[in-house]
Amino acid sequence: MCQRLGAIILASALALGLSACAQGTPSSPDAGGDRVKSRDEFQSRIGTAIDPEKHPGKALFEANCAGCHDGGVYKAPSTVWLEMMAPDAVLDAMNNGVMKAMAKNLSQQQRVQVAEYLAKVSLADYKPPAPPPACPTPQLAGGPPPAAVGWGHDNSRFIPASVAGLAKGDVPRLKLKWAFAYPGAVRARSQPSIGWGTVFVGGHDGTLYAFDLATGCARWTSRKSAEVRTAIVADAATKRLYFGDILGRAYAVDAMTGKTLWSVKVDDHPNATITGTPTIGGGLLYVPVSSLEVTAAADPKYACCTFRGSVVALDPATGAMKWRAYTVPNPAKSQGKTPAGTDVMGPSGAPVWNSPTYDSARGRLYFGSGENYSSPADGNSDAVIAVDAQSGKRLWIAQLTAKDAWNVGCMVGNDNCPTEKGPDLDVAASPILVKAGGKDVIVAGQKSGVAHGIDPMTGKILWRTRLGHGGTQGGVHFGMAAEGSRVFVPINDMADTKDGRTYDAKIAGPGLHAVDAATGRILWRNIARNNCGDTPNCDPGISAAVTAIPGVVFGGHLDGMLNAYDSATGKILWAYDTKQEVKSVNGATGKGGGMSGPGPTLAQGYLVLNSGYGLYYHMPGNVLLVFSAN
To answer: CA 162 → CA 42, 74, 149, 199, 604, distances in Å?
Structure first.
């Protein structure tokens, strides 16, 4: 089985269905190149690394904790999630939190050793990150409330001029205003939100920050249980923030103070997580549910798989569940046994990695699904699904790629690999609703490298346009944007996919593409120039979501470049290398890296984004960057 360290570093990369143990033998501690480099860089920032195989915490964990967290108790978070938590958070859970009763027979030293084993770092010299400089008062500065744009509101990711406060002519004058270096981090995966003169954003260690937009001082900070990966959805009407963490908890937080109003675990499966941003609409909060059970299949003794993707509708006031819509309608059942004698459970998988799209005119919700985890592959994977927004009843499904079942067993070559063996072509980005040619069209991008036009009433596929070769690390990953009927499709398409598959380099499309939503016709293409040279773990494509304002599209690349494109021609208007070192408001020096996941946010004349993605052969980084033309 892949070492848990590999699973930790791969966690968010695998949220797009990427392969574990990409190099070396599964048991090799240095398997996976950049995974180890990223881990070591992270540990060097927070304390001295320990050898988990020789550490006394290993025996303590196996004797006292593994029975629950390795599958013995269905609701207990899988060990892979515990290993992603900061060491002080693990220790606090045993001393004062939900694990206090279970840890009562352990001495304080033993609890420390368990926390050290999970975090792979010594607590003797560990110092929790110092808080950022505080503003003179905790009250928010005021100013315009957050607009209902971007993930969680309008997945077209178009920001009107009145909200952005930035015109096309201003873009070449953009300069870095201030930056924040996330302590002890190698990735920055939460998309910021702007409102009331404040930037709201989540960190690697689970801290939620409220920074003054103009200066970068902190109005307040609030520590949550685990890494905040989703965008922060700010609701102007209720002055609340909504988001999810990697442990599968959805939160409502008071935007003025950071106080948690409610927190709900949205799925009992031990490998469940929230990667897509919750969406507000129709009086409900829609939370997508994904998982990393795909990694558990690396163990040939693991009965793969039982997780089913879903979207859960919550009451935004209380967190109470109103309905759940599964991607795979029925629970998995035994489909036979592997040659090794392990049960094959299925159908399974079809996780929802993306933010659901709310259609107020039709009272519907649209979302995409990923691959099945086990055989048999069914009709629910790699699809766009429409449900009634008030009841969750399925209305139609448009499967974009059939017979796609894949798990990490395929990567390591064990019997848990489904007979279909992939190709792992998730619909990982949010479908967007676009008005084109006098009618509405859903545009869905897929890891296949194909963009699709779909009829929102029937689910009928209207057109398909290939923009790249796609694949495990190819095609559309996190998000497209639209300006009118013009849709901007980012393509990742790496030259070396690290997945053992061969792709046609002649149709590779790393970069940004514009298509007509009515017909799928390609309007322009800007294939990214490969400027990586000898830089390790560098690729020119766009994995992160892109964001549009009138006349301009902003895209962060895996090579660390943030580019502003002319939306009519694709010409680059402005560029900034996020890999350069910058001075942080907290006195530290930070730098960005590859960008994958969140895209830029714009409001009140500011451009704000996170940079750094130290996962799966991509460059680590740890900065929040804030730009202004003034």
So the answer is: 40, 49, 12, 18, 8
Taking CA 504 as the corner, what is the angle to CA 502 and CA 507, rounded to the nearest 5 degrees?
A: 150
Residue 414: left if φ>0, alpha if ψ -120 to 50, beta else—which one?
beta
* Predicted TM-score (pTM) of this structure: 0.88
Across residues 449-458, what is the average pLDDT? 98
Name residues whose C-beta falls within 8 Å of residue 107's C-beta, 6 or more positions apart in sequence. none
> How far, in Å, CA of 390 to CA of 612, rounded?
38
> Is residue 229 within a helix (H) or strand (E), and if so which, with residue range?
none
Give the CA radius of gyration of the chain: 22
User: Per-residue pLDDT for 7 more than 60?
Assistant: no
DSSP 131-189: PPPBPSSSS----SPPPS-BTTTBTT-B--HHHH---GGGGGG-EEEEEEE-TT-SB--
CA distances from 531 to 228, 503, 528 (A): 31, 21, 9
DSSP string, 103-116: TTTS-HHHHHHHHH
C-alpha to C-alpha distance for 102 and 120, rounded to whole angstroms: 22
d(CA 350, CA 377): 10
- Segment (H or E) for 38: helix 34-46
Could you give the maximum distance between any two Cα atoms of the chain, in Å?
A: 69
Residue type, 203: G
Per residue in 81-112, is it b (16+ CB within 10 Å) or e — as a string? Answer: bbbbbbbbbbbbbbeeeebeeebeebeeebbb
> Bridge partners of 252?
242, 262
Give pLDDT tens digits for 272-302. Answer: 999 999 999 999 999 999 998 998 898 899 9
State whether the Cα torsion 615-618-621-623 is positive or negative.
negative
Q: Which residues pair with 220 in a beta bridge?
A: 210
Q: Evaluate whether 231 touches 220 at the Cβ level (below 8 Å).
A: no
Decide: 221 and 211 in contact? Cβ < 8 Å. Answer: no
